[in-house]
From TrEMBL, chain A:
Biased amino acid composition, Polar residues: 75-88
Membrane-related topology note: Peripheral membrane protein
Function noted in UniProt: Could be involved in insertion of integral membrane proteins into the membrane.
Record-linked InterPro entries: Membr_insert_effic_factor_YidD (IPR002696)
Originating species: Nocardioides pinisoli
Protein's UniProt name: Putative membrane protein insertion efficiency factor
Compartment(s): Cell membrane
Entry's family note: Belongs to the UPF0161 family.
Length: 88, 323
């Protein structure tokens, strides 16, 4: 499952991302974030993190530097509190 | 697992079928009465109308984006500073630049939302046209069996618009699909090139970014060709129209909100000056220049008023002056 997701994200980054250039208001971009999140946190948590990030990426968000939380950091503190205050 | 996904997918798509088919059928009422209900022209124009409606609905997002990139001029010196400081480290440079955008509330990028919104719409249109041809008795959204049959059998310029390059031997479909693929490649390529040649500072055009752009030249036709042979001609019309709209939108941005320090910004400055000169007014940039000049003049005047300290002179010099 994880490998499948990684493959899909890689295909997206190869084929679809170049079509519209850089649009993401964050660094790393949403697809780079998704790739890293799934690689680091596995299919379920990675997908969850990536989905949250996508909902944060809209024209009313300030954008900015928004890295994938590290495994150690996210284990003891709730991720929803750390991401809710950021971006949107 | 797959069932689970198809249930979620169905729940998302069901309302979309209604929205898309409502717009499509609405346009078809208009164009159908003009060109004949079963005609390909009516259906193709309906698809183009649908595209325009969707892109118009996304204009608020676009306006918001323009507003949030309005102060790029003001933070430009800071961006330069960062480029000087972290120019060797692209990762760090990207991080710091994004931080700066966030802190100043100015972000030149459109966000991922417009693309995310358009994906399911694209998919819904694909399903509507594909299923209309394969299974006209299944009524999705506002499509009746009669409309499904018309939609699935509509022929435009000798090509059945529900056919794909792959599932037909008809030369007309293949030619039309190929032409549309070429059109999509050309519009996207032009959009990107316009962005690079006019709206990018010269220093951004070298290095890894330029490399990536060159890659794009090879990736683009491949992606459009793959999409172009797998999707029905009707969907390709949607895609091409959407690309054309993007190109026009970007032309507007480059003309009216160019990135500072680029050829497009210089061109706009020149136009503004010419316009201001015709009206006998002054542009903000000119006013700023004049203000700076006036300040410098004032400082010079102030300086000349302060008393000059007598300079040490030799007796010979003093005598020379007296005479």
């Amino acid at each position: 499952m994880k490998q499948l997701l990684i493959g899909l994200i890689r295909a997206w980054r190869f084929a679809i991302s170049p079509l519209y250039g850089q649009v993401c208001r964050y660094h790393p971009s949403c697809s780079a974030y998704a790739l890293e999140a799934v690689t680091e946190h596995g299919a379920v948590r990675g997908t969850w993190l990536a989905t949250r990030r996508l909902t944060r990426c809209h024209p009313w968000a300030a954008g900015g530097y928004d890295p994938v939380p590290t495994r150690a950091g996210s284990a003891d503190q709730s991720p929803s509190t750390s991401t809710a205050t950021r971006g949107a | 697992m797959l069932d689970f996904f198809s249930t979620i997918g169905g729940a998302i798509m069901a309302p979309l079928y209604y929205v898309i088919s409502a717009v499509l059928v609405g346009f078809h009422k208009l164009f159908g009465s003009l060109f004949g209900e079963a005609s390909g022209v009516a259906w193709v124009l309906s698809i183009i109308g649908l595209t325009l409606v969707i892109r118009m609905a996304l204009i608020p997002l676009f306006v918001k984006q323009i507003k949030s990139s309005r102060n790029m001029q003001l933070i430009q010196p800071k961006v330069r500073e960062l480029q000087k400081k972290y120019g060797h480290d692209r990762e760090r440079l990207a991080q710091e630049t994004m931080k700066l955008y966030k802190d100043s509330g100015t972000n030149p990028f459109a966000s991922c939302l417009p693309i995310l919104l358009q994906m399911p719409i694209f998919l819904a249109l694909f399903r509507l046209i594909d299923q209309a041809a394969k299974d006209p008795s299944h009524e999705r959204g506002l499509m009746t069996e009669e409309l499904n049959t018309q939609f699935g059998d509509a022929v435009f310029l000798g090509a059945k618009i529900s056919d794909t390059f792959l599932n037909t031997d008809d030369i007309g479909v293949r030619v039309l699909a190929a032409v549309l693929v070429l059109a999509m490649t050309a519009t996207t390529f032009l959009t990107q090139r316009q962005l690079m040649s006019k709206n990018m500072p010269a220093d951004a055009l070298s290095g890894p970014y330029a490399q990536q752009q060159k890659m794009l030249l090879y990736v683009l036709p491949v992606v459009f060709a793959v999409g172009g042979i797998a999707f029905p001609v009707g969907v390709l019309f949607y895609w091409t129209t959407s690309n054309l709209w993007t190109m026009g939108q970007q032309f507007y941005v480059i003309r009216n909100n160019p990135a500072p320090g680029t050829p497009a910004a210089d061109a706009k400055e020149e136009r503004d000056r010419a316009k201001a000169a015709r009206k006998g007014l002054k542009t903000p940039a000119q006013l700023e220049e004049e203000r700076l000049a006036a300040e410098a003049e004032e400082r010079r005047a102030e300086k000349s008023q302060t008393r000059q300290q007598p300079q040490r002179q030799t007796k010979a010099q003093r005598n020379k002056k007296k005479r």
